[in-house]
Amino acid sequence: MPDSTVPDAMPTDNLAKWIDWLPQHHEATLASRPDIMILAARYGDGHLRAAKAIGLKVKLTHPALSLGILDYYKFVNSQLDNVIRWAYLSSVRFAPSLWKWFYTATQKIDSESTTQQFLNRIGIESFYRAIAPKPPKVIVSTYPTAAGVVSTLKRQGRLSALNYVVMTDYSIHSQWIHRHVDLYFVGGDDMKEALIERGVDSKRVVVSGIPVDSRFQEPVNEDNVRRQLGIGSEPILLFMGGSYMPIQEFSHILSQLDQVTVPHATVVVAGREENRRQVALEYQKGAQHPMVVLGYVNNVHELMGVSSILISKAGGLTTTEALCRGVPMLIYRPIPGQEDANAAYVVKHGAGFLAKDQNDVTEMVTHLLTHPWELKAMARQARLLGHPDAADVIAAKIYEGVSAAEAHAQ
């Protein structure tokens, strides 16, 4: 893409590429002075995926609106960003109990506390200088730090933009809750009730669902997908191990799935880590059941569309994608804190199981495959929770916000 402008009538495929382009070209996106700015972060890819889903829907439904998508941490001192990123990734991968302690300790801290005030000012001056020449009319945050910064600028009277917050997990944490937020978009009724209990006006909370790629609304040609995978009519187990799962456990889960005696096929998505893919390929050679090993894929919507069970941790976006597709989840090793809450939400509403340990996996998968009526009931329940139109709902509210801001300025 030569610049950050986009024609009003761009084919959807090209528009999606332009949406991908925006956060990778920070300065060019800023220079376009968009009326709508979506702020995400690279701490896991869920926040950015949600931002892109919203951005794409905004441009598809209201192409004349100017849009920018940015990684908020580009405004943060690079050394501080590296320290924060290292601390987060190291704790969730190697010291999950430490991350759980931090998450729990900060879950209900007061918005005026020293800790919260510090977090609400990370990168604030750099961000303000960048947008001050022509502030956006609406700022949408899919990452809590950005939401806190925008709220602080509004409290200080330096910014009048509407502050919209899109929560990307099924849990309530103080990092998301700020006084100067105009609208919260949440995944379900449970979250709305929890926000109200924390003092948020119900009129400021929209149960939209968590936004995912629009392809999760589209039908899937199961015969074509199975043919491409080389899989017959047997039930498909979709195993998405995730980069946070230790490689030894990744290997052990492969073994547990292959020990299920009920006929099935396993599709393994190893992601971008080549060592993980090689482990799966090696295991595939002696597998008793058909096994397909994939690296990074861009057709998860199709893979979920043909699968009977998803075995995965409980990231907010992956969980929502499974719910939208009506795929029952067997959740294994959720990241302590937010993913524990996501897992609890799925289990509470009858859309999945939580494995206590590795050995639970074989038993639970066997149970589900031999009780197809229970599997179907879980699939129906998942679809009830999914909200595949979440991005549509949020895009409509953004348009209303921009229109109101323009009318007020006249």
UniProtKB/TrEMBL annotation:
GO CC terms: membrane
InterPro entries per the UniProt record, alphabetical: Diacylglyc_glucosyltr_N (IPR009695), Glyco_trans_28_C (IPR007235), Glycosyltransf_28_UgtP (IPR050519)
Protein keywords: Glycosyltransferase, Transferase
A GO molecular-function descriptor: hexosyltransferase activity
Cell compartment(s), UniProt: Membrane
Diacylglycerol glucosyltransferase N-terminal domain ranges (all copies): 47-212
Domain Glycosyl transferase family 28 C-terminal: 257-392
Glycosyltransferase found in the keyword field: yes
Keyword Cytoplasm in record: no
BP-aspect Gene Ontology terms: glycolipid biosynthetic process
One Pfam family it belongs to: Glyco_tran_28_C
Chief localization: membrane
SUPFAM superfamilies for the chain: UDP-Glycosyltransferase/glycogen phosphorylase
Gene3D superfamilies, A to Z: Glycogen Phosphorylase B
Protein family (similarity comment): Belongs to the glycosyltransferase 28 family.
Name this protein carries in UniProt: Glycosyltransferase
Gene source species: Sulfobacillus harzensis
